[in-house]
## 1
Amino acid sequence: MNPYVAGTLLGLVLLSAMFLSGRGLGASGGIKYAMVAIVGAVDKDHAMESTYYSKYFENGESPLKNWLALEVFGMVLGGFISGAISHRLKFKVEKSPKITNRKRLLFAFLGGVFFVYGAQLARGCTSGAALSGMAVLSVAGFVTMVAIFGSAYLFAWFFRSLWI
Amino acid sequence: MGPLSILSEFPEWLNLLIALFIGVGFGFALEQAGFSSSRRLAGMFYGYDTTVLKVFFTAAIVALVGSQLLSFFGLLNLKLVYVNPYYINATIIGGVIMGAGFIMGGYCPGTGISAFSIGKIDAMIFLLGGLAGAFLFAETFPYIQTIFLGNYKGEMRIDEWMGVSTGVFTFILIVAAVFLFWLAELAEKRFSRPEITSEI
């Protein structure tokens, strides 16, 4: 899809979230709730003792019964529908032909660790902090956007062999 | 008048159902934008594909202008819409860590979920890394609380901070975006990588 058309569609989805639920979009938050639910299932005692996890179990309900967790579940459905319509459903490792699968997957894992760690610290990622934050004119949104993209440009030289 | 779920006091199940539908739209838009491809996303940082910039700024401006219009016609109370709080240290340090993750992994969390939904195995591994990152944050939280809470500025708004009206700031942002779109088109010609873009 033309990027400006896709951007308009994305903007209308964000506007709907603001109008219907009084909030922006999010992605890393959903990953956090999934992690909290896993920790709660594996070691409930540890979760209840920790100041970080215990707040998510206070009301006695599953941490997955949450706006962001449901939204992320919907994202997987929406992405799947789009992929089916545009014939892009396929299991594959996407990478530059110059690197091995193993190297691509190692850096994909590390990238995930860094990104979501940073997103927890900054209280949101590209979706929840940068995009949604900019739409409500929050300084935090603009600073997050500049920090993410600025840093990625700064580090791009070191990781160029992964991509070009 | 909106936000509907707050002003009409929707029950929790209805707000969660809305979340699910918003998510479907979000996932659909990201995938249609081509964000399910890490090599396309990475192109933003080497200049050969600038879809990220075009989609990101178009979306931000549509939501910004749309919400201002709804507010102007009395259909949306913007005071009830969440404004991200600004903690200077955490926002900047977190953003820099995210940027490093972006260039290593090729995805951000939203685009990672998008790529996962069409079967990209590298995106599944990225999301597993994301779970590990969230876990690491939770476990190290006691040690980084001072960074997390330092230099709190409240729900600071950029138009107020610059001392201009919302309309003027929105106009400046649109002009800046059009300039960036023009630069992006130039970059795609200058740094074109047909061997990559033909595959994605």
## 2
Amino acid sequence: MSRFSVRGVVWRQLLRFAVRNTPIWLETSVIAFWSLFFLLWGPGRRSIMRNLRAIKPGSWPVINFFRTYRVFWNYAWSITDTAHFREQRIMPDWEFAGLENFEQLKAQKGGAIILTAHMGSYDLGAHVFSETSQRRIVMVRAPELDPQTGQFEEQLQERSRSEALRIDFNTKAGELALELLDAIQRGELVAIQGDRVTPGIAAVPATLFGRPAQIPAGPFALAMAAHAPVFPLFIVRIGRRRYRLVTCEPIHVERQSRHRDDDLRLAAEEWTKKLEEVIRYGWYQWFAFDPYAEAA
Amino acid sequence: MKVIRDRRDARWLPSRFHFALFRLFAYLRLRATKPQPSRGVVMVVDQYQSAGENYAVTICIFVVMISFVTALLNPTMSLPAACAIALPAAAVIIQVQIVLTGVIITIARKVAPTEGDNLAVSSIALMTLTIGAAIFTFIRDSPARFVAGAFLLLVALNAIAAVLVFLMRGAITDAERRFGVEP
């Protein structure tokens, strides 16, 4: 993969350079400029437009084109905020929605699963959680497609590593599942993104915005095996350096029928309902750069 | 990093603002605002936290750059044409300035190593360049000079505000101390 491809290392290096050199009061113009990148990245742009067509049925393509710019604008802000945290330990302002559920999560005896989506800043959310809670958190990430980018990210994460936060990559599903089960049994929290299936990962069929979609089966299977609740939690960017942490009521995945897959599907449906609610409100920051459904 | 919990009115803490004009305004708003308890709100005390301030300053810098390019081009073409070219050119000039300043500072720091990142030095360098561009535009015979003049007026007002903030530093510190922010 070329250093200059969309997922190449150059862009991560450029982001780091920008965060270390751009006066904060000029950041907005820089982000506005670089968000125009959406004009050059056809596949990403078309995927978001396809997703928007499903989220907002009957919407006009020309309006969705400008909405796509807004998605890229929010994405740029989110990765910039994360980079600022890594480089300068600068945090954004936070507010909580569903605080009682968040408190329940923090007070949960034993381990739990945090199920989230590609919204706001996943990295930043996990860091904030690990710094505001006594609980240890294991964050599961999709591996970088480009080895150089992966190496670069690992170096950065090594620098901002804390005792309370561990990052695992879901490269080998079987091995990771055992490690995560072990972590939950030790009383740790496991954070997983549940809105996208990466190749080689088991999936559950679900319906999202009226279209068939694939949802990762892992979080629900893990919850069932560990008898741990699943807390849907979303990190929503609500303004410049402002985020809202939305914590929903936990989903309990229990063996109720003879068929394990049916029970997993029930839990996945409950999850997709919550996911839909949040995406419908925060469509401008659902960073799904691949179409979530083939038919979308 | 200092944070204020459960107080929405903490958004007006002067320490959350960078430029003196905005700090002064924030202090006056803080004095006029009643306590707003709000459970689950976490406000970070950092000088670049205000969205309003940062958007306003970015827009000002962008407009100054547009007026600078317009003033450069105006003698050779009509004003609307100069403005049309100035819009994208200003955006590109800002990016080029940042990259060049960053590269120069990085090289300079390799020669004479210092702690921290480049932000403070690049901020001073880029604001100096912007003020230089505004002065250049202001002395040109172009309608863009009015825009540059307005920006220079803001710079002068900010300098006056800096003096006022310095004189009122005791009162500002006391107001912030009520939120638990120690200088």
